[in-house]
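Bench notes, afternoon.
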Amino acid sequence: MTLKELFAEYNADLPDTEVTGLTQNSADSGPGVVFFAVKGASVDGHDFIDDAVKRGAVAVVSAAGFDAPSAAPVIKVDDIDAAMAAAACKFYGGPSRALNIIGITGTKGKTSISYLLESIFFAAGRAPAVFGTINYRVNGKVISKAPNTTPAALTLQKLIAQAAAQGSKDLVMEVSSHALELKRVAGIDFNAAVFTNLQRDHLDFHNNFENYFAAKLKLFENLAGPQNVKQNRAAIINIDDEYGQKLAALLKGRVKVITYGIDRPADFTAADIKPGLEGVDFKINGQTAHINLLGAHNVYNALAAVASANHDGIDMMTALKGIAALKGVPGRMERVDLGQNFYVFVDFAYTNEAMQRAFDAVSPFKKGRLTMVFGCGGQRDTTKRPLMGATAARCADLVLITKDNPRKEDAANIFIDILRGMGGQDNYKVIPDRREAIFEAVQKACAGDIVIIAGKGHEDYQILPAGTIHFSDREQAEEAIKTYVQSAKI
Protein backbone atom coordinates (compact mmCIF):
# COMPACT_ATOMS: atom_id res chain seq x y z
CA MET A 1 0.00 0.00 0.00
CA THR A 2 1.32 3.45 -0.88
CA LEU A 3 1.43 6.54 1.26
CA LYS A 4 -0.97 8.25 -1.11
CA GLU A 5 -3.49 5.40 -0.85
CA LEU A 6 -3.22 5.12 2.93
CA PHE A 7 -3.86 8.80 3.63
CA ALA A 8 -5.92 9.83 0.59
CA GLU A 9 -8.59 11.45 2.76
CA TYR A 10 -6.03 13.79 4.33
CA ASN A 11 -3.69 14.79 1.52
CA ALA A 12 -4.03 13.96 -2.17
CA ASP A 13 -0.55 15.28 -2.94
CA LEU A 14 1.35 12.58 -1.07
CA PRO A 15 3.87 10.52 -3.07
CA ASP A 16 3.30 6.92 -4.14
CA THR A 17 5.95 5.72 -1.68
CA GLU A 18 5.38 2.14 -0.51
CA VAL A 19 4.45 1.86 3.18
CA THR A 20 5.97 -1.10 5.03
CA GLY A 21 4.77 -0.42 8.56
CA LEU A 22 3.20 1.91 11.12
CA THR A 23 4.61 2.96 14.49
CA GLN A 24 4.36 5.53 17.27
CA ASN A 25 7.77 4.57 18.65
CA SER A 26 10.64 6.20 16.76
CA ALA A 27 12.94 3.32 17.73
CA ASP A 28 10.77 1.00 15.61
CA SER A 29 10.92 3.30 12.62
CA GLY A 30 12.72 2.30 9.42
CA PRO A 31 12.54 2.48 5.63
CA GLY A 32 8.90 2.66 4.54
CA VAL A 33 7.52 3.17 8.02
CA VAL A 34 5.01 5.90 8.92
CA PHE A 35 5.68 7.55 12.28
CA PHE A 36 2.75 8.85 14.37
CA ALA A 37 3.87 11.67 16.67
CA VAL A 38 1.63 11.20 19.69
CA LYS A 39 1.74 13.43 22.74
CA GLY A 40 1.33 11.16 25.75
CA ALA A 41 1.11 11.82 29.46
CA SER A 42 4.88 11.71 29.97
CA VAL A 43 6.43 11.51 26.49
CA ASP A 44 5.80 13.73 23.46
CA GLY A 45 6.29 11.95 20.15
CA HIS A 46 7.01 15.27 18.45
CA ASP A 47 10.38 15.27 20.23
CA PHE A 48 11.31 12.11 18.33
CA ILE A 49 10.38 13.09 14.79
CA ASP A 50 13.99 13.68 13.72
CA ASP A 51 15.00 10.29 15.11
CA ALA A 52 12.16 8.54 13.24
CA VAL A 53 13.04 10.25 9.95
CA LYS A 54 16.75 9.50 10.34
CA ARG A 55 15.81 5.84 10.73
CA GLY A 56 13.91 5.96 7.43
CA ALA A 57 10.34 7.06 8.21
CA VAL A 58 8.61 8.01 4.94
CA ALA A 59 6.05 10.28 6.60
CA VAL A 60 5.05 11.78 9.93
CA VAL A 61 1.47 12.03 11.17
CA SER A 62 0.88 14.83 13.68
CA ALA A 63 -2.13 16.34 15.40
CA ALA A 64 -3.11 19.76 14.16
CA GLY A 65 -1.73 22.54 16.33
CA PHE A 66 1.60 20.87 17.01
CA ASP A 67 4.85 21.90 15.35
CA ALA A 68 6.18 18.96 13.36
CA PRO A 69 9.19 20.10 11.29
CA SER A 70 10.45 17.18 9.27
CA ALA A 71 12.42 16.29 6.16
CA ALA A 72 9.67 13.76 5.41
CA PRO A 73 6.07 14.65 4.47
CA VAL A 74 3.96 15.69 7.46
CA ILE A 75 0.27 14.75 7.55
CA LYS A 76 -1.78 16.93 9.89
CA VAL A 77 -4.89 15.38 11.41
CA ASP A 78 -7.56 16.68 13.79
CA ASP A 79 -7.64 13.50 15.91
CA ILE A 80 -4.39 11.54 16.12
CA ASP A 81 -6.00 8.60 17.95
CA ALA A 82 -8.73 8.21 15.34
CA ALA A 83 -6.15 8.60 12.55
CA MET A 84 -4.01 5.78 13.96
CA ALA A 85 -6.98 3.44 14.25
CA ALA A 86 -8.18 4.22 10.72
CA ALA A 87 -4.73 3.88 9.18
CA ALA A 88 -4.03 0.60 10.96
CA CYS A 89 -7.39 -0.84 9.95
CA LYS A 90 -6.77 0.13 6.33
CA PHE A 91 -3.12 -0.99 6.28
CA TYR A 92 -3.91 -4.46 7.65
CA GLY A 93 -6.98 -4.91 5.48
CA GLY A 94 -9.72 -4.65 8.12
CA PRO A 95 -8.83 -7.98 9.76
CA SER A 96 -11.63 -7.81 12.35
CA ARG A 97 -14.21 -8.53 9.65
CA ALA A 98 -12.83 -12.05 9.21
CA LEU A 99 -13.13 -12.99 12.89
CA ASN A 100 -15.86 -13.59 15.43
CA ILE A 101 -14.92 -10.93 17.99
CA ILE A 102 -16.23 -10.74 21.55
CA GLY A 103 -15.31 -7.62 23.53
CA ILE A 104 -15.49 -7.63 27.33
CA THR A 105 -15.67 -4.42 29.34
CA GLY A 106 -16.45 -3.47 32.93
CA THR A 107 -14.49 -2.77 36.08
CA LYS A 108 -14.05 -6.34 37.26
CA GLY A 109 -14.26 -9.79 35.71
CA LYS A 110 -12.85 -9.12 32.25
CA THR A 111 -9.80 -11.34 32.57
CA SER A 112 -11.62 -14.24 34.22
CA ILE A 113 -14.38 -14.16 31.59
CA SER A 114 -11.78 -14.18 28.82
CA TYR A 115 -10.14 -17.28 30.29
CA LEU A 116 -13.48 -19.01 30.79
CA LEU A 117 -14.52 -18.24 27.22
CA GLU A 118 -11.19 -19.45 25.90
CA SER A 119 -11.69 -22.73 27.77
CA ILE A 120 -15.18 -23.08 26.28
CA PHE A 121 -13.84 -22.51 22.77
CA PHE A 122 -11.18 -25.19 23.40
CA ALA A 123 -13.92 -27.57 24.58
CA ALA A 124 -15.77 -26.85 21.32
CA GLY A 125 -12.67 -27.76 19.29
CA ARG A 126 -11.85 -24.21 18.25
CA ALA A 127 -8.60 -22.24 18.36
CA PRO A 128 -9.38 -18.82 19.84
CA ALA A 129 -7.17 -15.78 20.19
CA VAL A 130 -7.30 -13.86 23.48
CA PHE A 131 -6.00 -10.34 24.06
CA GLY A 132 -6.12 -9.13 27.64
CA THR A 133 -4.45 -7.94 30.80
CA ILE A 134 -2.16 -10.92 31.29
CA ASN A 135 -0.92 -11.52 27.73
CA TYR A 136 -1.91 -11.86 24.09
CA ARG A 137 -2.20 -15.44 22.87
CA VAL A 138 -3.42 -17.48 19.90
CA ASN A 139 -4.65 -21.06 20.40
CA GLY A 140 -3.16 -21.06 23.89
CA LYS A 141 0.29 -19.90 22.76
CA VAL A 142 1.52 -16.55 24.03
CA ILE A 143 2.51 -14.31 21.13
CA SER A 144 3.22 -11.21 23.21
CA LYS A 145 3.28 -9.83 26.73
CA ALA A 146 0.57 -7.30 27.50
CA PRO A 147 1.85 -3.77 28.09
CA ASN A 148 -1.80 -2.70 28.05
CA THR A 149 -5.07 -4.54 28.69
CA THR A 150 -6.12 -3.47 25.20
CA PRO A 151 -3.23 -2.91 22.78
CA ALA A 152 -2.68 0.46 21.12
CA ALA A 153 -4.49 0.74 17.78
CA LEU A 154 -1.42 0.16 15.60
CA THR A 155 -0.47 -2.96 17.55
CA LEU A 156 -4.04 -4.19 17.92
CA GLN A 157 -4.81 -4.30 14.20
CA LYS A 158 -1.49 -6.03 13.55
CA LEU A 159 -2.25 -8.65 16.23
CA ILE A 160 -5.74 -9.26 14.84
CA ALA A 161 -4.24 -9.84 11.39
CA GLN A 162 -1.68 -12.20 12.95
CA ALA A 163 -4.39 -14.16 14.77
CA ALA A 164 -6.36 -14.56 11.54
CA ALA A 165 -3.22 -15.65 9.66
CA GLN A 166 -2.57 -18.30 12.32
CA GLY A 167 -6.01 -19.80 11.82
CA SER A 168 -8.09 -18.31 14.62
CA LYS A 169 -11.73 -17.73 13.81
CA ASP A 170 -12.58 -16.36 17.25
CA LEU A 171 -11.08 -13.47 19.20
CA VAL A 172 -11.88 -12.69 22.82
CA MET A 173 -10.72 -9.22 23.79
CA GLU A 174 -10.68 -7.31 27.06
CA VAL A 175 -11.63 -3.72 26.27
CA SER A 176 -10.59 -1.14 28.85
CA SER A 177 -12.17 2.25 29.37
CA HIS A 178 -8.83 3.88 28.55
CA ALA A 179 -8.76 2.02 25.23
CA LEU A 180 -12.26 3.19 24.41
CA GLU A 181 -11.46 6.82 25.22
CA LEU A 182 -8.26 6.61 23.14
CA LYS A 183 -10.14 5.01 20.20
CA ARG A 184 -7.93 1.92 20.18
CA VAL A 185 -10.80 -0.31 19.06
CA ALA A 186 -12.20 2.12 16.47
CA GLY A 187 -12.72 0.32 13.17
CA ILE A 188 -13.15 -3.08 14.81
CA ASP A 189 -16.48 -4.78 14.12
CA PHE A 190 -17.60 -6.70 17.20
CA ASN A 191 -19.98 -9.65 17.09
CA ALA A 192 -20.75 -9.41 20.77
CA ALA A 193 -19.90 -7.21 23.74
CA VAL A 194 -20.04 -8.16 27.43
CA PHE A 195 -20.69 -5.71 30.26
CA THR A 196 -19.62 -6.99 33.70
CA ASN A 197 -20.16 -4.15 36.21
CA LEU A 198 -19.13 -0.62 37.07
CA GLN A 199 -17.27 -0.02 40.32
CA ARG A 200 -14.87 2.57 41.72
CA ASP A 201 -11.72 2.62 39.58
CA HIS A 202 -9.82 4.90 37.21
CA LEU A 203 -11.54 8.00 38.58
CA ASP A 204 -8.20 9.77 38.30
CA PHE A 205 -8.66 9.41 34.53
CA HIS A 206 -12.44 9.72 34.17
CA ASN A 207 -13.12 12.10 37.11
CA ASN A 208 -16.56 10.64 37.90
CA PHE A 209 -18.78 7.61 37.42
CA GLU A 210 -20.82 9.13 34.63
CA ASN A 211 -17.72 9.77 32.51
CA TYR A 212 -16.51 6.26 33.35
CA PHE A 213 -19.82 4.76 32.20
CA ALA A 214 -19.81 6.94 29.07
CA ALA A 215 -16.43 5.46 28.17
CA LYS A 216 -17.74 1.91 28.58
CA LEU A 217 -20.80 2.80 26.53
CA LYS A 218 -18.59 3.49 23.50
CA LEU A 219 -18.06 -0.27 23.03
CA PHE A 220 -21.80 -0.83 22.75
CA GLU A 221 -22.25 2.14 20.43
CA ASN A 222 -19.66 0.42 18.25
CA LEU A 223 -21.58 -2.84 18.51
CA ALA A 224 -24.97 -1.33 17.67
CA GLY A 225 -23.78 1.27 15.17
CA PRO A 226 -24.66 1.17 11.46
CA GLN A 227 -20.98 0.99 10.48
CA ASN A 228 -20.69 -2.50 12.03
CA VAL A 229 -21.03 -5.04 9.21
CA LYS A 230 -21.46 -8.07 11.50
CA GLN A 231 -24.76 -9.93 11.60
CA ASN A 232 -26.59 -11.22 14.71
CA ARG A 233 -24.82 -8.88 17.12
CA ALA A 234 -25.55 -9.12 20.83
CA ALA A 235 -24.87 -7.26 24.07
CA ILE A 236 -24.40 -9.63 27.03
CA ILE A 237 -25.18 -7.63 30.18
CA ASN A 238 -25.00 -8.20 33.93
CA ILE A 239 -28.54 -7.15 34.80
CA ASP A 240 -27.84 -7.23 38.55
CA ASP A 241 -25.54 -4.23 38.14
CA GLU A 242 -27.13 -0.77 38.32
CA TYR A 243 -25.25 0.42 35.26
CA GLY A 244 -26.00 -2.87 33.49
CA GLN A 245 -29.71 -2.08 33.85
CA LYS A 246 -29.10 1.39 32.48
CA LEU A 247 -27.14 -0.03 29.55
CA ALA A 248 -29.81 -2.60 28.71
CA ALA A 249 -32.43 0.15 28.58
CA LEU A 250 -30.26 2.29 26.31
CA LEU A 251 -29.70 -0.60 23.89
CA LYS A 252 -33.29 -1.86 23.77
CA GLY A 253 -34.47 -2.09 20.16
CA ARG A 254 -31.02 -1.30 18.77
CA VAL A 255 -29.25 -4.63 19.22
CA LYS A 256 -30.04 -8.02 20.72
CA VAL A 257 -29.70 -7.87 24.52
CA ILE A 258 -28.89 -11.04 26.47
CA THR A 259 -28.94 -10.70 30.25
CA TYR A 260 -27.29 -12.66 33.02
CA GLY A 261 -27.58 -12.37 36.77
CA ILE A 262 -28.36 -13.99 40.08
CA ASP A 263 -30.69 -11.63 41.94
CA ARG A 264 -32.91 -10.43 39.09
CA PRO A 265 -34.74 -12.36 36.33
CA ALA A 266 -32.33 -12.93 33.44
CA ASP A 267 -31.78 -15.04 30.33
CA PHE A 268 -28.95 -16.84 32.11
CA THR A 269 -29.22 -17.15 35.86
CA ALA A 270 -27.55 -19.12 38.64
CA ALA A 271 -28.97 -20.87 41.69
CA ASP A 272 -27.91 -23.30 44.44
CA ILE A 273 -24.53 -21.57 44.69
CA LYS A 274 -22.13 -23.49 46.95
CA PRO A 275 -18.68 -21.87 47.18
CA GLY A 276 -15.64 -23.48 48.78
CA LEU A 277 -11.88 -23.21 48.83
CA GLU A 278 -11.67 -25.58 45.85
CA GLY A 279 -14.14 -23.71 43.64
CA VAL A 280 -17.89 -23.20 43.30
CA ASP A 281 -20.72 -25.61 42.55
CA PHE A 282 -23.97 -24.11 41.22
CA LYS A 283 -26.64 -24.43 38.57
CA ILE A 284 -27.03 -22.40 35.38
CA ASN A 285 -30.61 -22.41 34.13
CA GLY A 286 -31.11 -25.65 36.04
CA GLN A 287 -27.96 -27.37 34.71
CA THR A 288 -25.27 -28.50 37.18
CA ALA A 289 -22.08 -26.49 36.86
CA HIS A 290 -18.67 -26.22 38.52
CA ILE A 291 -15.79 -23.79 38.29
CA ASN A 292 -12.38 -24.06 39.93
CA LEU A 293 -12.31 -20.30 40.56
CA LEU A 294 -12.83 -19.07 44.12
CA GLY A 295 -15.68 -16.87 45.24
CA ALA A 296 -19.37 -16.64 44.46
CA HIS A 297 -18.62 -13.51 42.40
CA ASN A 298 -16.99 -15.77 39.80
CA VAL A 299 -20.43 -17.26 39.13
CA TYR A 300 -21.19 -13.97 37.36
CA ASN A 301 -18.12 -14.47 35.20
CA ALA A 302 -19.17 -18.02 34.38
CA LEU A 303 -22.67 -16.82 33.45
CA ALA A 304 -21.20 -14.18 31.13
CA ALA A 305 -18.96 -16.74 29.43
CA VAL A 306 -21.75 -19.31 28.98
CA ALA A 307 -24.17 -16.66 27.67
CA SER A 308 -21.58 -15.44 25.18
CA ALA A 309 -20.81 -18.97 24.03
CA ASN A 310 -24.51 -19.76 23.66
CA HIS A 311 -24.98 -16.71 21.45
CA ASP A 312 -22.09 -18.05 19.36
CA GLY A 313 -23.89 -21.36 18.85
CA ILE A 314 -22.08 -23.48 21.44
CA ASP A 315 -24.43 -25.82 23.29
CA MET A 316 -24.87 -25.67 27.06
CA MET A 317 -23.17 -28.99 27.86
CA THR A 318 -20.03 -28.02 25.92
CA ALA A 319 -20.00 -24.63 27.64
CA LEU A 320 -20.32 -26.23 31.08
CA LYS A 321 -17.53 -28.65 30.23
CA GLY A 322 -15.38 -25.72 29.17
CA ILE A 323 -15.80 -23.65 32.33
CA ALA A 324 -15.15 -26.72 34.50
CA ALA A 325 -11.91 -27.46 32.62
CA LEU A 326 -10.29 -24.14 33.52
CA LYS A 327 -7.94 -24.77 36.46
CA GLY A 328 -7.51 -21.12 37.37
CA VAL A 329 -6.66 -17.63 36.19
CA PRO A 330 -3.18 -16.25 36.86
CA GLY A 331 -3.24 -13.80 39.74
CA ARG A 332 -6.97 -14.09 40.39
CA MET A 333 -7.26 -15.70 43.83
CA GLU A 334 -4.54 -18.01 42.53
CA ARG A 335 -3.60 -20.59 45.12
CA VAL A 336 0.08 -21.10 45.92
CA ASP A 337 0.19 -24.68 47.14
CA LEU A 338 3.47 -26.44 47.90
CA GLY A 339 1.93 -28.84 50.37
CA GLN A 340 1.92 -26.47 53.35
CA ASN A 341 -0.84 -26.78 55.93
CA PHE A 342 -2.20 -23.24 55.38
CA TYR A 343 -3.61 -21.41 52.37
CA VAL A 344 -1.84 -18.73 50.36
CA PHE A 345 -3.60 -16.84 47.56
CA VAL A 346 -2.28 -14.23 45.13
CA ASP A 347 -4.93 -11.84 43.91
CA PHE A 348 -5.09 -8.80 41.63
CA ALA A 349 -7.45 -6.95 44.00
CA TYR A 350 -6.48 -3.28 43.80
CA THR A 351 -9.84 -1.69 44.63
CA ASN A 352 -11.98 -1.79 47.74
CA GLU A 353 -14.69 -3.84 46.03
CA ALA A 354 -12.20 -6.40 44.72
CA MET A 355 -10.59 -6.68 48.14
CA GLN A 356 -14.00 -7.29 49.70
CA ARG A 357 -14.68 -10.06 47.17
CA ALA A 358 -11.40 -11.72 48.08
CA PHE A 359 -12.37 -11.68 51.75
CA ASP A 360 -15.87 -12.93 50.97
CA ALA A 361 -14.40 -15.83 48.98
CA VAL A 362 -12.39 -17.24 51.89
CA SER A 363 -13.87 -15.92 55.15
CA PRO A 364 -16.66 -18.53 55.48
CA PHE A 365 -14.01 -21.27 55.46
CA LYS A 366 -11.51 -19.62 57.80
CA LYS A 367 -10.30 -21.88 60.60
CA GLY A 368 -7.35 -19.81 61.78
CA ARG A 369 -6.02 -16.33 61.21
CA LEU A 370 -6.58 -14.36 57.99
CA THR A 371 -3.66 -12.17 56.93
CA MET A 372 -3.83 -9.58 54.17
CA VAL A 373 -0.72 -8.19 52.45
CA PHE A 374 -1.43 -5.17 50.26
CA GLY A 375 -0.49 -1.66 49.18
CA CYS A 376 -1.84 0.89 46.72
CA GLY A 377 -0.36 2.13 43.46
CA GLY A 378 1.36 5.49 43.36
CA GLN A 379 0.27 8.34 41.08
CA ARG A 380 -3.17 6.76 40.75
CA ASP A 381 -6.64 7.28 42.24
CA THR A 382 -6.03 8.29 45.86
CA THR A 383 -9.68 8.12 46.91
CA LYS A 384 -9.70 4.34 47.09
CA ARG A 385 -6.75 4.10 49.51
CA PRO A 386 -8.62 4.78 52.79
CA LEU A 387 -11.50 2.61 51.59
CA MET A 388 -9.12 -0.31 51.08
CA GLY A 389 -7.55 0.36 54.47
CA ALA A 390 -10.97 0.29 56.14
CA THR A 391 -11.93 -2.99 54.46
CA ALA A 392 -8.62 -4.65 55.30
CA ALA A 393 -8.77 -3.56 58.94
CA ARG A 394 -12.35 -4.79 59.29
CA CYS A 395 -12.01 -8.14 57.51
CA ALA A 396 -8.47 -9.36 58.26
CA ASP A 397 -6.97 -10.45 61.55
CA LEU A 398 -3.59 -9.07 60.53
CA VAL A 399 -2.88 -6.45 57.84
CA LEU A 400 0.64 -6.02 56.44
CA ILE A 401 0.74 -2.73 54.52
CA THR A 402 3.50 -2.58 51.94
CA LYS A 403 4.51 -1.11 48.60
CA ASP A 404 2.54 -1.95 45.48
CA ASN A 405 3.80 0.02 42.47
CA PRO A 406 4.67 3.37 44.12
CA ARG A 407 6.04 4.73 40.85
CA LYS A 408 7.40 8.24 41.51
CA GLU A 409 5.23 8.85 44.57
CA ASP A 410 6.66 8.69 48.09
CA ALA A 411 5.38 5.40 49.55
CA ALA A 412 5.04 7.04 52.97
CA ASN A 413 2.24 9.25 51.60
CA ILE A 414 0.46 6.18 50.24
CA PHE A 415 0.68 4.48 53.64
CA ILE A 416 -0.75 7.58 55.33
CA ASP A 417 -3.75 7.51 52.98
CA ILE A 418 -4.36 3.82 53.68
CA LEU A 419 -4.03 4.25 57.45
CA ARG A 420 -6.50 7.13 57.37
CA GLY A 421 -9.23 4.61 56.61
CA MET A 422 -8.31 2.10 59.31
CA GLY A 423 -10.13 3.96 62.06
CA GLY A 424 -7.43 3.69 64.70
CA GLN A 425 -7.41 -0.11 64.67
CA ASP A 426 -4.10 -1.70 65.63
CA ASN A 427 -4.24 -4.98 63.69
CA TYR A 428 -1.70 -3.80 61.16
CA LYS A 429 2.01 -3.41 60.52
CA VAL A 430 3.72 -1.30 57.89
CA ILE A 431 6.50 -3.18 56.09
CA PRO A 432 7.61 -1.09 53.09
CA ASP A 433 9.62 -3.87 51.41
CA ARG A 434 7.08 -6.10 49.66
CA ARG A 435 9.28 -9.20 49.72
CA GLU A 436 9.79 -8.80 53.47
CA ALA A 437 6.05 -8.36 53.99
CA ILE A 438 5.24 -11.54 52.05
CA PHE A 439 7.86 -13.52 53.97
CA GLU A 440 6.55 -12.28 57.31
CA ALA A 441 2.97 -13.20 56.38
CA VAL A 442 4.03 -16.74 55.45
CA GLN A 443 6.41 -17.26 58.36
CA LYS A 444 3.76 -16.24 60.89
CA ALA A 445 1.13 -18.54 59.38
CA CYS A 446 -0.09 -21.56 61.32
CA ALA A 447 -2.10 -24.62 60.32
CA GLY A 448 -5.45 -23.60 58.84
CA ASP A 449 -4.49 -19.93 58.38
CA ILE A 450 -5.21 -18.01 55.18
CA VAL A 451 -2.83 -15.48 53.61
CA ILE A 452 -3.97 -13.21 50.77
CA ILE A 453 -1.33 -11.23 48.87
CA ALA A 454 -3.30 -8.58 47.01
CA GLY A 455 -2.85 -5.85 44.44
CA LYS A 456 -0.42 -7.13 41.82
CA GLY A 457 -1.74 -10.55 40.91
CA HIS A 458 -0.16 -11.82 37.69
CA GLU A 459 2.30 -8.92 37.38
CA ASP A 460 5.98 -9.88 37.31
CA TYR A 461 7.37 -6.42 37.95
CA GLN A 462 7.34 -3.63 40.51
CA ILE A 463 7.54 0.04 39.53
CA LEU A 464 9.69 1.92 42.03
CA PRO A 465 10.95 5.53 42.01
CA ALA A 466 14.35 4.26 40.83
CA GLY A 467 12.85 2.21 38.01
CA THR A 468 11.12 -1.07 37.24
CA ILE A 469 12.38 -4.33 38.72
CA HIS A 470 11.36 -7.96 38.30
CA PHE A 471 8.95 -8.91 41.08
CA SER A 472 6.33 -11.64 41.22
CA ASP A 473 4.07 -12.13 44.24
CA ARG A 474 3.69 -15.78 43.33
CA GLU A 475 7.43 -16.36 43.06
CA GLN A 476 8.04 -14.60 46.37
CA ALA A 477 5.28 -16.60 48.05
CA GLU A 478 6.72 -19.85 46.74
CA GLU A 479 10.18 -18.92 48.01
CA ALA A 480 8.74 -17.95 51.39
CA ILE A 481 6.84 -21.24 51.69
CA LYS A 482 9.93 -23.26 50.74
CA THR A 483 11.93 -21.42 53.39
CA TYR A 484 9.14 -22.07 55.87
CA VAL A 485 9.15 -25.80 55.10
CA GLN A 486 12.95 -26.05 55.28
CA SER A 487 12.91 -24.46 58.70
CA ALA A 488 10.85 -27.52 59.81
CA LYS A 489 7.91 -25.45 60.88
CA ILE A 490 5.54 -27.81 59.04
